[in-house]
Amino acid sequence: xxxxxxxxxxxxxxxxxxxxxxxxxxxxxxxxxxxxxxxxxxxxxxxxxxxxxxxxxxxxxxxxxxxxxxxxxxxxxxxxxxxxxxxxxxxxxxxxxxxxxxxxxxxxxxxxxxxxxxxxxxxxxxxxxxxxxxxxxxxxxxxxxxxxxxxxxxxxxxxxxxxxxxxxxxxxxxxxxxxxxxxxxxxxxxxxxxxxxxxxxxxxxxxxxxxxxxxxxxxxxxxxxxxxxxxxxxxxxxxxxxxxxxxxxxxxxxxxxxxxxxxxxxxxxxxxxxxxxxxxxxxxxxxxxxxxxxxxxxxxxxxxxxxxxxxxxxxxxxxxxxxxxxxxxxxxxxxxxxxxxxxxxxxxxxxxxxxxxxxxxxxxxxxxxxxxxxxxxxxxxxxxxxxxxxxxxxxxxxxxxxxxxxxxxxxxxxxxxxxxxxxxxxxxxxxxxxxxxxxxxxxxxxxxxxxxxxxxxxxxxxxxxxxxxxxxxxxxxxxxxxxxxxxxxxxxxxxxxxxxxxxxxxxxxxx
Length: 511
What we know:
The protein has 18 helices and 17 strands. The chain is of the alpha/beta class. It has three domains: 8-129, Response regulator (Rossmann fold, 3-Layer(aba) Sandwich); 139-275, 3-Layer(aba) Sandwich (Rossmann fold); 278-508, Histidine kinase-like ATPase, C-terminal domain (Heat Shock Protein 90), CATH 3.30.565. The strands form four sheets. A five-stranded parallel beta sheet has the order 2-1-3-4-5, with helices on both faces. The protein has a five-stranded parallel beta sheet with strand order 7-6-8-9-10, with helices on both faces. Strands 12-14-15-17-16 form a five-stranded mixed beta sheet. α5 crosses α7 (147-158) and α14 (360-370) packs across α16. The radius of gyration is 25 Å and the shape is globular. The chain starts with 7 loop residues before the first strand and ends with a strand. The model is unreliable at 452-469 and 492-497 (pLDDT under 50).
């Protein structure tokens, strides 16, 4: 009996013998394989095979080499977004820092030496397509004025499921850390940078921001022992001399990541203990609060249905225009009601929901449709800038009605009449969905509570101003999706020259 395929992989190499070797290795790992003899043929295959999960690329090929092919994959307008963001594994006979520089700048996921194919091919592919679940959700801030250095670190960590954010100097990194308290688990920074160097950033992180526990790794081209001693005195966790290879970096990071995971495990146990100590009255109270929030979300969509029915009136011809929206909203309401009845969402502790691919642009449009009445009441516009074909891994009903509904509703509530809300998305392994308003903003205290791991919103006065308290359940849902939330707000910037709030959801791509 034939095993079910783990996914389709496009193998690109001008050598028929090499393609046969790679095919055999991948098929032994239960992958389906299609082939191309050069870059141009590879692009044709991708136009025909939208179910390809990964591409292996030879570097040296006639007609179009591997680097040119990778560039065309990333920039080809005829290819759908999910294909343009595919993992690309370069297979080369001669590994060099210069080749890796070119590859990572073009969006390569990893490099593999041909002489080690038999030993490393399957593990490299499995890692790129199925990252270590224990590391999924960890977030690292990478700081370096060299885009190549940032990319090689980012790709190394992305391959293991770590979410990465990049900054080109210490000042930009400091601003990110200050605005997005609790959003990062690890900092990796260059030493010699313009504007603010690694030493200055370390002092500010440890002293001004009082981030004493977060691991901070310095990368530097100098091996000066005196400098290293001063850096450790300043509070760095580890030091690595450039140039380095990916394997050396991961080896040094492993111990620090293990500490983070251990701390998370301890923290989770502490939360479980607190949960076990809660009495029945408190559990019942929380359940009642969350039911109230869900009822509020259902009420929003019901109001939207009523508005559509009022618009239809006695004109039966108009019914066809709204039929699809009415049916979808009604189906979502019934799903939410079933979740309430079955305690799938309102129960305390972790939420378990059936996750599936969801069209991001369609979901955002549906949430905006539900909130059409409050938008019209404040004469506000929503600008949606999201590519077609971006799929995220979520539970569709809760994502539209509880997450997007609450985020956009709060943006409406805190925005002035006649203003805009900008919604955009950045494709990739992790989709970044940005919802930006130009209103009064929220305080740093609330930003920290909403983004910090397992923080309780009870006791924060401003919570009552936020839409029905819905952000508390929204945070639980995003965690259930395996995602992460970052909030940047004018109030949180302590008087900086800015206005409004930007909320960024990092959600796993369903591609």
